Amino acid sequence: MAKYRQVHVEFWQDGFVLDLTPEEKYFYIYLMTNSKTSQCGIYELPKRIIETETGYNRETVEKLLKRFIDYGKILYCDKSKEIMIINWIKYNGIRSPKVIACIKKELEAIKNKDFVKSLASLCQQYGYPIDTLSIDYGEEEEKEEEKEEEREHAADAANFYQENFGVISPYIADSIQKWEEDLSSEIVIEAMMRTLAQNKRAWGYTESILRSWASINLNTLDQILAYELQRTKANQANQNSKDKSSSGRAIPDNFDFNLEAGED
């Protein structure tokens, strides 16, 4: 972390800055010079630290953060407590090899990978000489998170069976896992819910529902719902067509249908 930050004298003549209130100017300077700032312009800045260092209360801090987000000057992530000063690399893009190495090291520690992607895009836009291909965008972490979610969903489907159908046998547990791999945990649970709606608790009935969906390549819950809606509309249209074709003037009971009428 640097011991100081430089502010260009032109800062005070900038059109955007000239229109800021004194409070906003103070806050903007703080964001660029506080004790947590980094060389890449993305750094962790908890709201509690902002309160302590600026003397503002939480309400004012959140108001000012939102205001500068709306101005398009910063991004803030409540989950990771990280902030990104959007134009930082534009005005502080020092091209020293040591600084570039420092930036790459800082980027590795950033938790919000969307911020990292945004900075890489800005580096390309402004011609900043950093190897964006070597930057960790968190794809591996995202894949691992997706796998973890799949494992959690799998547990959810098995738990749903045990809570609503009864003790799960190894055979059914294996069958549930295979259907989740072929379709998804969400669809397996939906099929079990429909089984229960028919007052049944047989896994075979659930599998028949899953097979019917798989046979027509319905691989997501949205596809299933859309297909069923389309089928319902088609059935209603067919029924309306039948009703129209069967409608007409009723023949009176006492009507004498004489085929020879009108002949000489």
TrEMBL record:
Q: Which domain of life is it from?
A: Bacteria
Q: Which InterPro entries match?
A: DnaB/C_C, DnaD, DnaD-like_sf
**Region of interest: Disordered:** 235-264
Domain spans labelled DnaB/C C-terminal: 159-228
Q: Which keywords belong to this entry?
A: Coiled coil
- Family as reported in the entry's similarity comment: Belongs to the DnaB/DnaD family.
Name of the protein described by the UniProt record = DnaD domain protein
- Taxonomic lineage per UniProt? Bacteria, Bacillati, Bacillota, Bacilli, Bacillales
